[in-house]
Amino acid sequence: MLCASGRLLAARTATSLPAPPRGRGPALRCPRRELHFPGNPDPPSWDCLAGRLTRASASPHRRVILRRGRMPPAVGRGLAGSELRLRRSRCGPRAAGRDVAIQAAARSPKRPAPGSWRFEVAGRRAMLALVTLLSFATRFHRLDQPRHICWDETHFGKMGSYYINRTFFFDVHPPLGKVSSVMLIGLAGYLSGYDGTFLFQKPGDKYEHHSYMGMRGFCAFLGSWLVPFAFLIVLDLSNSLPAALLTAALLTFDTGCLTLSQYILLDPILMFFIMAAMLSMVKYRSCANRPFSAPWWSWLSLTGISLACALGVKFVGLFIILQVGLNTIADLWHLFGDLSLSLVTVGKHLMARVLCLIILPLVLYMAIFAVHIMVLNKSGPGDGFFSSAFQARLSGNNLHNASIPEHLAYGSVITVKNLRMAIGYLHSHRHLYPEGIGARQQQVTTYLHKDYNNLWIIKKHNTNSDPLDPSFPVEFVRHGDIIRLEHKETSRNLHSHYHEAPLTRKHYQVTGYGTNGTGDSNDFWRIEVVNRKFGNRIKVLRSRIRLIHLVTGCVLGSSGKVLPKWGWEQLEVTCTPYLKQTLNSIWNVEDHINPKLPNISLDVLQPSFPEILLESHMVMIRGNNGLKPKDNDFTSKPWHWPINYQGLRFSGANDTDFRVYLLGNPVVWWLNLVSIALYLLLGSIIVVAMQRGAQLPTKVEGLTRVLLQGGGQVLLGWMLHYFPFFLMGRILYFHHYFPAMLFSSMLTGILWDTLLRLCAWGPASSSLARAVHAVGILSLLLGAAYSFYLFHPLAYGMVGPLAQDPRSPMAGLRWLESWEF
Amino acid sequence: MRCQSACAVLGFLNFTQGGLRSLLFYKMLEVLKRPVVVTTNINLNIVALTGVGLLSRLWHLSYPRAVVFDEVYYGQYISFYMNRVFFLDDSGPPFGHMLLALGGYLGGFDGNFLWNRIGAEYTSNVPVWALRLLPALAGALSVPMAYQIVVELRFSHCTAMGAALLLLIENALVTQSRLMLLESPLIFFNLLAVLSYLKFFNCQKHRPFSLPWWFWLMLTGVACACAVGIKYMGIFTYLLVLGVAAVHAWHLIGDQTLSNVLVLYHLLARAVALLVTPVTLYLLFFYIHLTLLCRSGPHDQIMSSAFQASLEGGLARITQGQPLEVAFGSQVTLRNIFGKPLPCWLHSHQNTYPIIYENGRGSSHQQQVTCYPFKDVNNWWVVKDPGRHQLVVSNPPRPVRHGDVVQLVHGMTTRFLNTHDVAAPLSSHAQEVSCYVDYNISVPAQNLWRLDIVNRQSDRDTWKTILSAVRFVHLNTSAVLKLSGAHLPDWGFRQLEVVGEKLSRGHHESMAWNVEEHRYGTSQEQRDRELELHAPTQVDVSRNLSFMARFSELQWRMLTLRGEDAEHKYSSTPLEWVTLDTSIAYWLHPRTSAQIHLVGNIVIWASASLATATYVLLFLWYLLRRRRDVHDLPEDVWLHWVLAGTLCTGGWALNYLPFFLMEKTLFLYHYLPALAFQLLLLPLVLQHVYDHLCRSRVQRHLFSTLVVAWYSVACHVSNKLRPLTYGDSSLTPGELLALRWRDSWDILIRKS
């Protein structure tokens, strides 16, 4: 017991302020609490300017006293002790409520009788049930409306269909593999009897007889859990039921969250996992005084699992990982500084976190991915984005189970693929470069899809005889040979010359030139294998080759830029005079047809799982970076979001349509905005006051701790989910803000509850204080509910005249001109 | 230890000389009694370091008398300054350019030189020496400054000498300082900011609010502003200094021996010096810049009409004295405010849209409306009142106000600007805009536009030339006239497409237009009007933009100007810098193989990186041990060690790591500011190892010997690379090949 209490104390200090360990002369060593930084090693003595400021020798004492004042030991030793004892059993599901109740009782203005905790717990459970019920009710109300595709449903519904049909696809839209979620959507659809035949072509298409409610219901189900999760998080961080209720009300009555949860989208799933991760992290941190107990382990591993899932849904999951990571580092740092813990114990803590927060999520993530790869084993529209080896494992692809000659020989018909992902095959067609763009010769581009125009014949540079003539012996192409590439369809040679390339002005133009294979010396290319010796044969698929133009010395490459209309929006091929080795100028031979050579099986090519993993991620990241906004278009900017500047049209635009408009409830959002400013102000005042050594009464001190620690936690969440968007170059949408909005609502809950308590604490008697607090919270709750009543048509859909029209149900509610409803 | 004392003896020689000391009133009398005695300490180390620094940087400074590498880029701006012609350079704020131009001004440069290619011989009117002097001085003075920084960090004089000598012999720094380039002034101000902050910080303990305290504090702010003013990169050092100052201020707040008022004074002083001063200075740079550059020049087009009108010549000559308020009957040209991809004017011409486009869609076959990037008589439009038939201005002129409905008549063809529910040629989601041609096929004219002044003060604002940004909202379809940014194909003469945007999601600048040229129309007959349109507008009043408006526009354009992503033969990636896997050929003698090559001293680079890694590892080790209550270092040593590390490693990291996130073309010389910080760290780590890690005498002796040997090797390497640094001696191909220590160095070797 003795040992245990020591540990308890340690854990306690780790979570709050690092106090000096007992029994080692704590007061005098007194490690300074601030961030350690050079300078000010000694307290300054001001003898030169103002003699009266010369410091008294009693200062160490004073500091100790102040420290005590902050740590409440004098009055609170007993109290802290009891708190500790209670805290210990806190993780246990049975006793959880009791402890919370007593803590809350200690904080609440009037301390109720000790027996009333039972009542409190019951009240909390009832509230939780009520909140959950309300959340489900609002989310499932009119879920089947509208009966057509809304906005991005076209995207994710389509992917769900792909899963059901097991067709491989490439999705540019998601960054890290929304694999799990789309899979979930697909699964939900599958279970609910959706057969994957609906085309999901464009928003507005009617579902007709196709069963879509399973998929929508699944998303709404997950979206409904956000509210109880937020409730529990705030309850745990602030130990205050009103704060939790306020948060839950803000989220329930936010039209934006509601709208986003009702459709077949990734966002409800993503937000579900983000909140789940946050909740389990908060829970496991509140178990910190009982490390390695069963609840501790389960919450820790739940955190890891939720993180993996969040990342599996969208790139944005990285931010919650970052938050958990920062928390874990801080946690470990405290544990490490706790001298009562042996290094072995600290090591155990470290290993537990590595296991649950790194290894477990990784394994899970890869498992999700493996399922994705296994399910999608049929060739589909996304093949061309991937490398040759990757394609070989898709059934239906021409590389699947294929066998082709291994070494390149003269006369072979080949396709040449760029090694950089999502560039494609070297391509040419009968169209010429337009007037004014280099020489008016045949275009050469790269093309992502398989096409007979991708075929080239490899020939010797000096003879035009047909090498496939059986009388000639087979001659292999070797590293360093001078060759000519003849386009099979048009019989023109791959050619380059000193004209500037159409888009990249510093490169040379590449064209198709000559008739029936007769051109000039500008058609000669030296073929080189990267990192090989001269004279070696060139292997199909595996050799990384470069083509060097003999006359100008430039290297064949693709700039990756999209040609205008005249080039059919294929990618530009150039000859770059800069000899740096980049993937843009490295190619491999993919198809290879030569009847004179024996075929070998390509099974050797099967990429290993890590390679597949790496490649799909690279392609996704590239695809994501490719989503750049155009110059002359209006795009949503991150600074628009918190002020609710403009929403998104989910469905319909005209007064005859069924219109759904994704827009936050302005009352809730603007309250959130004010709260953030207020929080920053209040927080900095408190922090400065504490740094100046101000002595706060115990009650206020408890409140400020909630404000700084609980509030700080969610503020960090808000910042991590919001600010990175300012750095992103890709095209952004309003709905990207919603994860941050969840955190900001939690902050609002904590802030207003604490603020009202602080206000009430000051002058008033206890009954008045409670009244002020209750009235404040109640008016906020009612305000949120009433504004929801006003704005609910945004989410549930509206028909009839637009808001400018006085006859419209939304008349007078268009508070900003930029709202379009 | 012996070494230290030797340095100290060498270093401090006292001199007594006549000079200055401020004296108070009652001491005046004593002055009469006693001779004026002023004691000055001159640290001969510093004098010597300054001397060799100057020698290394200024030696044969005007050689080569030819344009070397980026001089070709900065040189043109010097010429613009000399001719006082306005330019826009997005590479950095103007202070750096002005410094270079100051050199030209002092040398009497008249700006007449064509900076067109690297290697071009300078003509006799170019004062090469004066132009290169300021960067060279900055480079030379960095050497003694490094010494002082290390001393202020409370490390030994010997260590300080080591740091300064490293900076002295580093080839890349020498090369970069000897040319008209901005890196060496940047490094100079970076180091100055750090040095003056340290001086200030060391004053803080004993004499806050004294004269030197104020001086160094203000100097910190000034140096930071200069660093930012030279290149945006300087902001990293500014952030470093700000961060350190913030942490120190935080400690000050926690110091309860100070009264609240005193703490407030301290904070205010810091805020004034480190926040207000730099911002003011930054604005001052732009003020001088804009005052100097008062003539119109080649980059005018990028700026708004109002800005152009504030420059001498150019647009100002045309727009001077135009009537301010647009009236019904006014003749105007309309410029798109967004101006991307090209600045252009609303334009129309006789040609019509093709009946069928290439992709099979049809058009209205009416007259084309485009946006044209050149001045042309076809850019003129007449603002017509739909209720009247006249195309002239009534007397008195009736101004057009926000919300009025107007028709726009194309001046040369007298057709009405029109849009209708036909897909635009390229942006098929938007409406086609045409000049209406009546084909009698039941397509009615829809040519009424409501005027929407975006930057209006009140709802009855009038439409003002140049100043008003207006949108034209189509009355029938509520589409907005917009520049789509796409280039039309050949049938549209590659002019820019103009569309009616129906699904307008909020306001975008590409929908706003402003009147640039304007006059009141006086001729009702088409023939007269054509003559009138061909004549230039001429009247006389000048319109001035406030400095802040000009500054914010210029700054915004500089930050958002997106040049073509220029690939460069010598560009490199940040990873290649640390290992020195890249180099830049700066200049090659036209006949011999003498050449200047930016390449670092590979021994120094490698050991500096090693020292950084050592520092980080040691720091983490100590930190973890301290957390477990094991104190390896005495408290004050530890604090100095942390401060030194924060400034040097932090300076390196802040000046280096952000480049990984940048998408622009990067070069080896971008690494030099980070390198300067790294060079400061290297001797500190060496001294730390000597003092605290070498336990016995033998080990210390051994370590000292190793350090001396290592430094000799560094000197040797530096000397080997000297011909590439100064470019003064021609080497044989064999010797050049021998210098090519890495395959990736592109040392130029002449054949034959």
TrEMBL record, chain A:
Top-level EC class: transferase
Any signal peptide, and if so, which residues? none
Q: Where is the MIR domain?
A: 405-461, 474-530, 535-592
Its lineage reads: Eukaryota, Metazoa, Chordata, Craniata, Vertebrata
Q: Which SUPFAM superfamilies match?
A: MIR domain
What gene does the UniProt entry assign to this protein?
Pomt2
> What GO molecular-function term can you cite, just one?
dolichyl-phosphate-mannose-protein mannosyltransferase activity
Enzyme Commission number: 2.4.1.109
What keyword terms does UniProt attach to this protein?
Endoplasmic reticulum, Glycosyltransferase, Membrane, Repeat, Transferase, Transmembrane, Transmembrane helix
Which pathway is this protein engaged in?
Protein modification; protein glycosylation
Its biological purpose is as follows: Transfers mannose from Dol-P-mannose to Ser or Thr residues on proteins.
Q: Which family does it belong to?
A: Belongs to the glycosyltransferase 39 family.
Q: Name one GO cellular component term.
A: endoplasmic reticulum membrane
Q: Which PROSITE patterns match?
A: MIR
Q: What is this protein called?
A: Dolichyl-phosphate-mannose--protein mannosyltransferase
Organism field: Heterocephalus glaber (Naked mole rat)
The record's listing under PANTHER family reads: DOLICHYL-PHOSPHATE-MANNOSE--PROTEIN MANNOSYLTRANSFERASE, PROTEIN O-MANNOSYL-TRANSFERASE 2
Q: What is the membrane topology listed in the Swiss-Prot or TrEMBL record?
A: Multi-pass membrane protein
Membrane-spanning residues? 218-251, 263-284, 296-322, 354-375, 667-690, 702-725, 737-756, 768-791
The UniProt catalytic activity note for this protein reads:
a di-trans,poly-cis-dolichyl beta-D-mannosyl phosphate + L-threonyl-[protein] = 3-O-(alpha-D-mannosyl)-L-threonyl-[protein] + a di-trans,poly-cis-dolichyl phosphate + H(+); a di-trans,poly-cis-dolichyl beta-D-mannosyl phosphate + L-seryl-[protein] = 3-O-(alpha-D-mannosyl)-L-seryl-[protein] + a di-trans,poly-cis-dolichyl phosphate + H(+)
Location in the cell: Endoplasmic reticulum membrane
Automatic annotation (TrEMBL), chain B:
Where is this protein localized, as stated in its record?
Endoplasmic reticulum membrane
Q: Give the stretches traversing the membrane.
A: 42-60, 94-115, 127-147, 181-201, 213-230, 235-253, 265-288, 598-623, 638-657, 669-690
**Domain MIR: residue ranges:** 323-386, 397-454, 458-518
Q: Name one Pfam family in it.
A: MIR
Q: What class of enzyme is it?
A: transferase
List the membrane topology term(s).
Multi-pass membrane protein
Which catalysed reactions does the entry list for this protein?
A: a di-trans,poly-cis-dolichyl beta-D-mannosyl phosphate + L-seryl-[protein] = 3-O-(alpha-D-mannosyl)-L-seryl-[protein] + a di-trans,poly-cis-dolichyl phosphate + H(+); a di-trans,poly-cis-dolichyl beta-D-mannosyl phosphate + L-threonyl-[protein] = 3-O-(alpha-D-mannosyl)-L-threonyl-[protein] + a di-trans,poly-cis-dolichyl phosphate + H(+)
InterPro entries linked = ArnT-like_N (IPR003342), MIR_dom_sf (IPR036300), MIR_motif (IPR016093), PMT-like (IPR027005), PMT_4TMC (IPR032421)
Q: What is its main location?
A: endoplasmic reticulum
What this protein is called in its record is Dolichyl-phosphate-mannose--protein mannosyltransferase
Q: Gene name?
A: Pomt1
